[in-house]
Design goal:
The strands form two sheets. The chain has a nine-stranded mixed beta sheet, with helices on both faces. Strands 1-2 form a two-stranded antiparallel ribbon. The protein is globular and about 45 Å long. Strand 9 and strand 10 form a beta hairpin. The protein is about 30% helix and about 25% strand. The chain has a domain of about 160 residues: Rossmann fold, CATH 3.40.50.300. The chain has seven helices and eleven strands. It has about 240 residues and is of the alpha/beta class. The relative contact order is 0.20.
């Protein structure tokens, strides 16, 4: 496999903890700094919860301010969702460790051109993490699939230019052993996490699979996870199908 050259701003071996218990055991301690990671799955699979957990624990545990960018979910709904796990986003916002940014369709050009209010927020608070919900909603704001794909590529490049580690939600219909990537965006990202919520025999199963993680020797297992009091917990020693 051809080696991917390091970007100038990357530090060799530097890792960003995900803030999700058990996940970092599968990816050599965390994501590569300044990488773009997709979290894909069906409705109800846990994508937004993982995104908020990445941002909240990043700020509280690792002192890395974060920005939540949404094209669909309102602030009240997001803050209410987070409080289910004791994540007080309002308090973080008051401490300048968290920022909620809601984009309207007519504002999208700001991101591609220079970042607008996002870049201003990054500079003012020293943001190190960005979460976007969702890539599907973002790409649908463009007239054709080609324009949508080009916009996604521009977005990913912009995120890397800002030197932030980013987690992005994408709605992809999944079944165990198969996936559907509508725009081929998995090839544009640095990492892809697949969240499953499917029926296996007579029970519902939640599981996580790492499809890819650039520069990382990651596990190939499909590991179970569950929602706990403090968010998502992954069980890295277990496998849904035993040894694959």
């Amino acid at each position: 496999m051809r080696a991917v050259p390091k970007r100038e701003y990357e530090v060799e071996g530097e890792r960003v903890p995900s803030g999700v218990e058990g996940l970092d055991d599968l990816i050599e301690g965390g994501f590569e700094r300044n990488s773009v990671v997709l979290v894909c799955g069906d409705a109800g699979s846990g994508k937004t919860t993982m995104l908020l957990q990445f941002l909240y624990n990043g700020a509280v545990q690792y002192k890395e301010p974060g920005i939540f960018i949404t094209f669909e979910e309102g602030k009240k709904s997001a803050y209410k969702h987070a409080m289910q796990y004791g994540w007080d986003l309002k308090e973080l916002e008051e401490k300048n460790l968290f920022r909620f940014v809601e984009y309207k369709p007519q504002q999208i050009a700001e991101i591609i051109k220079g970042g607008g209010i996002i870049k201003d927020a990054i500079d003012s608070m020293g943001a190190k993490r960005i979460g976007i919900d969702s890539l599907t909603s973002y790409s649908m704001l463009f007239k054709t699939p080609f324009e949508g794909r080009e916009a996604v590529l521009s977005l990913f490049n912009r995120l890397r230019d800002w030197s932030c580690t980013s987690m992005i939600v994408s709605e992809i219909i999944l079944q165990f052993g198969s996936r559907r990537d509508e725009a081929g965006v998995e090839f544009l990202s640095d990492g892809v996490l697949l969240l499953y919520y499917a029926r296996q025999q007579d029970m519902k199963v939640r599981a996580l699979e790492i499809l890819k993680m650039r520069g990382t020797k990651h596990s190939d297992k499909i590991c179970p996870f569950k929602f706990c009091e403090k968010g998502i917990v992954v069980f890295p020693k277990d496998s849904v199908f035993g040894r694959l």
